[in-house]
Structure formats: structure tokens, C-alpha cells
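Input record, target 12 of the design panel.
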């Protein structure tokens, strides 16, 4: 009880001393259509989360990029949307968000089955490391939040939620009362159906990158859940309901 009271007191001091400027916050919300359906109470709680997020996380620029306050606020607001009803503790254990001006090449080394070392030089727009930073392309952050189904910020931060119980595999730790069997059934059937459609060359309203692996499927459908919820509800209603239970949100009701 005493520890909880101290925590609330400390958070109140942070919110008071590091309050986001009203005009800057309102400008960021206005620039992000996916937030426009939130209630006044939800926006107030999102602002508090974003304030604490920017206090606790080191959002830094790379490659000489000049990080504007608008980009910082856009990252914070969208990173905190999935945890609006979950809490900032979901992002504990790491501190850095690295922002490149555009696509970046991570240069990861890996060894194949023959023992040959390769360096991955494929350009990326976002990346999440387990117990490490989230890396984002500022150019793609600018395009996120338009309610068009594509959101690199949400994508990378829900990978962090997926990693709370180990490697990203599309099966994050579920809340008490949620059924692991129901989650696995809904996602497995949807993923197999989606991969079949992509392999057949069908045009899909969901980004084909979701067929890469179950972790990417979870991240991509989470983007759609927040950006274009009606699309996900129409395509995979059981996945939508599992995500609504997981995020404790129902974005369709906001439209």
C-alpha cells in the first residue's frame, strides 16, 4: 500500500514537472486521425502515458537527424495507444528509441546451417530488439497514424508486447480469463488463410508482409486493429475479438 502511494505521488510530480505543452499535444493529436475517435477521458489518459513515456524513455536521433518535438509526440502517442488500458509497465526493461531520418540498414550477422556467416543489409523502416531499443524511420513515423492501416510505430511497439514472454512469436502473455487455446485457434486459422491468399497472388487489404511469420502477422493485424478496425473485423472477426480482449479496447466502437 505504501509503495503504491509513493508510486502515485512520484508519477503526479513527473506529470506536473514535465507536462506536455497544450498546443504541441493538441497539434500532435490533430495530426493523427487514428486518435480522433478517442473520448476526452481516453485522450487525457493517453496524454499522461505519453508524458511518462517521454520521461522514462530516451528518444534520440541518429545519423545527424534533427528530432522535432512533433515527431517525439507522435511516437509517444502512438506507442502508448496499444497500452492505453494496460499500463506503461508493459514497456519496462529497456530505455531507448532510436530515430533515423529514413530507412536504415541494421547489418545483422547470422550464421547459416553450413556455418557461413552472412550480414543482412536489407533496408528497414523499423525494428524492435528484445531487451533493447526500438528503432524507427522518421519518414515512416510521419506517415503513421493516418488511419490507412499502416503504422510503423504501433508495429514495432506491439513487438515489444509480444516479447514480454520471450522471443516474438505472435503469442504475447494473455490476461487472466483469456483462453490460450482460443487465441491459438483464431490466429492459426487466420494466418494460414492469409498465407494461402498471399501465396496464390490474391490482392489483400492487409499488408502481405503479415505472411512473413506469426510474429509479423500479430504486429500487422495490430496495426489494422487500431488504424482500420472495420477491415480486420470483416476479414478475421475472431482475431479482432482476441485483440479487443488483449488490448482491452474496441476501436470499431470509436468510429
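The sequence produced for target 12 reads:
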Amino acid at each position: 500500500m505504501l509503495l503504491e502511494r509513493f508510486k502515485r505521488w512520484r508519477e503526479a510530480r513527473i506529470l506536473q514537472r514535465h507536462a506536455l505543452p497544450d498546443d504541441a499535444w493538441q497539434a500532435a493529436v490533430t495530426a493523427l486521425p487514428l486518435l480522433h475517435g478517442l473520448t476526452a477521458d481516453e485522450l487525457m489518459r493517453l496524454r499522461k502515458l505519453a508524458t511518462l513515456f517521454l520521461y522514462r524513455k530516451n528518444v534520440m536521433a541518429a545519423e545527424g537527424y534533427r528530432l522535432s518535438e512533433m515527431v517525439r509526440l507522435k511516437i509517444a502517442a502512438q506507442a502508448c495507444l496499444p497500452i492505453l488500458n494496460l499500463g506503461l509497465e508493459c514497456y519496462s526493461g529497456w530505455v531507448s528509441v532510436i530515430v533515423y531520418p529514413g530507412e536504415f540498414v541494421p547489418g545483422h550477422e547470422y550464421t547459416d546451417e553450413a556455418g557461413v556467416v552472412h550480414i543482412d543489409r536489407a533496408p528497414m523502416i523499423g525494428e524492435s530488439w528484445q531487451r533493447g531499443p526500438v528503432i524507427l524511420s522518421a519518414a515512416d513515423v510521419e506517415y503513421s497514424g493516418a488511419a490507412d492501416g499502416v503504422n510503423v510505430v504501433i508495429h514495432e511497439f506491439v513487438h515489444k508486447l509480444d516479447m514480454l514472454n520471450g522471443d516474438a512469436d505472435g503469442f504475447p502473455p494473455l490476461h487472466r480469463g483469456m483462453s490460450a487455446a482460443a487465441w491459438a485457434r483464431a490466429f492459426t486459422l487466420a494466418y494460414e488463410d492469409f498465407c494461402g491468399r498471399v501465396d496464390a497472388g490474391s490482392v489483400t487489404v492487409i499488408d502481405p508482409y503479415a505472411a512473413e511469420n506469426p510474429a509479423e502477422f500479430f504486429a500487422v493485424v495490430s496495426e489494422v486493429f487500431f488504424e482500420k478496425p472495420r477491415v480486420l473485423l470483416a476479414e478475421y472477426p475472431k482475431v479482432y475479438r482476441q485483440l479487443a480482449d488483449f488490448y482491452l479496447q474496441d476501436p470499431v466502437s470509436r468510429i
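The longest helix spans residues 180-199.
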